[in-house]
Amino acid sequence: MTTIIFAIVVLGLLGALFGAVLGLASKIFHVDQDPRLEQVRECLAGANCGGCGFPGCDGYAAAVVGGAPTNKCVVAGPEAAAKIGEIMGVSADATDKMVAHVTCSGSNDVAQPRFNYSGPKTCQAAMLFGGRDSKDCRFACVGLGTCVEACQFGAMSVENGVAHVDREKCVACGACADVCPKKIIEMVPYKQKVIPTCSSQDKGGVVMKQCDVGCIGCMKCQRECPLKDGPAITVENNLAHIDYSRCIGCGKCATVCPRSIIKWQFGAPRPRPVVEEKKEA
């Protein structure tokens, strides 16, 4: 009995000693937390989506206090950036609203099928089966909704075998782009009026056999661009690309595209072709 009591007393003394040492160490090595850290954290959306490029909201708040830009929380938007700028005593950098865009028009009714896939309903699994997916075009959207599962904001859906983005719900966090095995989802300016919607880099003859609406690299769009200092839309690797920083949104490229893969945004009607009036002799 005496041995048990002695052991309990020794353990109690050791516990008290270690507790005192830890308490003393916490005071000696204590680091005051910057009060701005919690203030910045409260301004963020709390989605922990990683769209800012940092590991969650706590990681981004710490980075802001350390000097990172104040406008990286795409979910909270410019209002949050302005508040964070006030907290940090800096002016919030202006930034254009961005949205995700699926660069594929190859729905099931226009893209030629390669085989009937009946495996696990994920884009990655379909890619492993046979080397790509069930569509003949190797650049086409798989259409099994991996991006839909990744989106925390309900902005993604799959319609007729192609992923679509609800531009009003999208916060440009980039989660859909990160999980897309084809890497055909990109971030584009919300205000951009005309956007190419194809990713195929195959030559025109191959594309015409694979998809009824794929880009054939005809360069009509490039020739039609009215910018005098060089076209804002160019064809590279058999595919049309737009320099969004230079595009004026006239829509002429969309008008002349024979495959209708340059989409006119905002629900507006496609621009009508410009018909030159004949001069009287």
Task: Give keywords.
281 residues; alpha+beta; two-stranded antiparallel sheet
Strand order of the largest sheet: 1-4
Output the number of helix runs.
10
Oligomer: single chain
Mean pLDDT reading? 84
Poorly predicted runs of 5 or more residues: 268-281
Helix content: 25-40%
In N-to-C order, the SSE pattern is HHHHEHHEEHEEHHEEHE
Main beta sheet: strand number and arrangement? 2 strands, antiparallel
- Overall spatial form: elongated
Describe the structure.
The chain has 281 residues and is an alpha+beta fold. The chain contains ten helices and eight strands. The chain has helices at residues 2-28, 35-43, 56-65, 77-88, 123-128, 146-150, 175-179, 204-210, 220-224, 252-256; strands at residues 98-102, 156-159, 162-165, 185-189, 194-196, 233-236, 239-242, 262-264. A two-stranded antiparallel ribbon has the order 1-4. A two-stranded antiparallel ribbon has the order 2-3. A hairpin with a 2-residue loop joins strand 2 (156-159) and strand 3. Helix 2 packs across helix 3. The termini are far apart.
